[in-house]
Amino acid sequence: MNNILVTGGCGFIGSNFVRYLLEESDFSGRVVNVDLLTYAGNMENLADIEKAFPDRYAFVRADICDREHMAELFDEYDIDTVCHFAAESHVDRSIVRPDAFIRTNITGTFNLLELCKDSEDRLALFHHISTDEVYGSLGEKGLFTEDTPYRPNSPYSASKAASDHLVRAYHKTYGLPVTISNCSNNYGPYQFPEKLIPLMILNALEEKALPVYGDGRNIRDWLYVRDHCIAIWTIMKQGQRGETYNVGGDCEMENIAVVEMICDILDELKKSPDGRPRRALITFVKDRPGHDRRYGIDFTKLKQALGWMPEESFESGLRKTIQWYLNNRDWVDRVRSGEYRAWIKTQYGRSWSDPSTPG
Ligand code: NAD
Ligand code: TYD
Predict the structure, then answer these.
(1) CB-based contact 251:222 (threshold 8 Å)
(2) Which is the closest atom of ligand 1 to the Cα of 64?
(3) Can you give the residue range of the structural domain that contains 84?
(4) Strand 3-7 and strand 81-84: pairing?
(5) Which residue from 40, 39, 38, 36 is spatially nearest to 13, judged by alpha carbons?
(6) Looking at the domain assignment, is residue 209 inside a domain?
(7) Are 144 and 151 in contact (CB under 8 A)?
(8) What is the spatial distance between Cα 237 and Cα 232, in angstroms, rounded to a whole number?
(9) In a domain, 90, yes or no
(10) Which residues have C-beta within 8 Å of that of residue 180, sequence separation ≥ 6?
(11) Is residue 275 part of a domain?
(12) Which residues are catalytically annotated?
């Protein structure tokens, strides 16, 4: 693995991964970050990395669905490894407007696999980042293993399931060297404030209602994003080609408990102006259609075969995350106002339209 193409490297997990790869890991080659810069992609997330690693990091704005452009990039940068994050990633958006999910998550992945097949001679690995949501919803007991049948319930998870199947098929049919990871809910720095944890942190700081869907008893397993990045790199280096690895945090929580914890930590770190506990802002709202009740991950395979374990506890990871959002209000303001596009323009002398943004 010398020249890694990271797709979606300007998003939440992708930018944390590029940062981890260049600042912390033992990787010594070059990273080419290809991102379309939809509403979720922000070059600002890696501005310092671009300065610090001019010879080892390159950014190209491109659409993974544009096969011709992607083919040029494969050749230009002599790509031998792909780490594929690019996707439409928010369940609520997929319910309202699934089109971009089908396009990017399925057709985009298919395009990349075709290009990898064409450059098979030099391809070391195609690593596909996926989600535990492909397995559907659990009852009160049991955990998802790598053998759990796929039962996706939202357009988002169905599109990710389709992409997982394609990746597996390209290994079985064409012998492409692939690995797949299915991970639980991530949280940490640079997460777009539409997802539960950053949304609640920012609403709570601004004394706005904290909208909890349904009865708030839905359960998710949570993993700090840096731990996910370490798992991905571990699988890329040591994972058996053709295999799938579940990644989880051993941390199942009801949504209401997550929101209450955010309120309590914020009350401790930054009292609300009127001194009222932030739990008073919690508001139960209409449930999400098709809302999966419980996710829980069995990651014994990754633990036993490759020795990976999460380092961060939920309490310590959540504190770090809340502190990051408190320290980076300028980033938040630019992201929420759409001003980060103007920031890109001042830095790069051009602006980009956003063809795939789903509203
Ligand atoms: P994100 O929405 O923050 O980032 C997605 C990135 O992909 C953005 O930078 C966006 O600009 C880019 N992108 C979108 N369409 C593109 C296209 N057509 N061509 C090129 N780039 C495009 O998402 P995230 O939360 O960082 O998730 C990254 C990956 O991890 C996704 O594949 C997601 O399914 C998976 N995943 C996420 C979680 C989670 O909790 N966030 C958990 C498990 C797996
Ligand atoms: P989310 O962060 O959207 O991730 P996912 O749907 O991929 O798990 O949501 C996490 C959980 O929080 C999910 O059960 C839905 C719930 N949720 C709320 O209750 N309120 C909200 O405003 C959001 C965004 C999510």
Answers:
(1) yes
(2) 19
(3) 3-193+219-250+290-312
(4) parallel
(5) 40
(6) no
(7) no
(8) 9
(9) yes
(10) 127, 128, 130, 164, 167, 168, 243, 244, 245
(11) no
(12) 132-133, 156
d(CA 178, CA 286): 40
- How do residues 11-45 score in pLDDT, each as one tens digit? 999 999 999 999 999 999 999 999 999 999 999 99
Length of the chain: 359
Q: Nearest residue CA, atom 21 of ligand 2?
A: 196
Residue 301, helix vs strand vs coil: helix
DSSP 3-state assignment of 245?
strand
| Cβ neighbour number for residue 174 with a 10 Å cutoff | 13
Residue 21 C-alpha to ligand 2 middle, in angstroms? 28
Distance of CA 341 to the CA centre of its chain: 21
Q: What single-letter DSSP state applies at residue 146?
A: T
The tens-digit pLDDT sequence of the chain (359 residues) is: 999 999 999 999 999 999 999 999 999 999 999 999 999 999 999 999 999 999 999 999 999 999 999 999 999 999 999 999 999 999 999 999 999 999 999 999 999 999 999 998 999 999 999 999 999 999 999 999 999 999 999 999 999 999 999 999 999 999 999 999 999 999 999 999 999 999 999 999 999 999 999 999 999 999 999 999 999 999 999 999 999 999 999 999 999 999 999 999 999 999 999 999 999 999 999 999 999 999 999 999 999 999 999 999 999 999 999 999 999 999 999 888 776 666 555 655 544 444 344 33
241: CATH: 3.40.50.720
86 neighbors 108 (Cβ within 8 angstroms)? yes
- Please report whether residue 344 resides in a domain: no
Residues with CB under 6 A from ligand 1: 7-8, 10-14, 35-38, 40-41, 63-65, 85-89, 104, 108, 129-131, 160, 183, 185-186, 192, 356
Pull the structure tokens for residue 117: 């097949």
Question: Tens of pLDDT along 247-257?
Answer: 999 999 999 99
Q: CB under 8 Å to 145, separation ≥6 — which residues? A: 246, 298, 300, 301
Please name the helix (run of DSSP H) or strand (run of DSSP E) that holds residue 260, with its range, or none.
Answer: helix 255-269
**Closest C-alpha among 196, 168, 324, 171 to residue 260:** 196
User: In total, how many domains does the chain have?
Assistant: 1
Q: Above pLDDT 90, what percent of the chain?
A: 92
